[in-house]
Amino acid sequence: MTGSGHFLDESLALAARLPKVDLFLSAAGEEVLEIYRLHLDDLKTRFRIFRDKTASGVPVGMLYEDIYHTVVVAPATSNTVAKCACGISDSLPTNMFAQAGKRGIPGIVFACDTEPVVVTRSPHDWVTLRPRGIELANVERLRQIDFCRVVASPAELEAALDVRLKEVSLAWNTSSS
Question: Which DSSP string do the residues of 34-65 spell out, in sequence order?
Answer without folding.
Answer: HHTT--HHHHTTTSEEEES--TT-GGGGGGGG
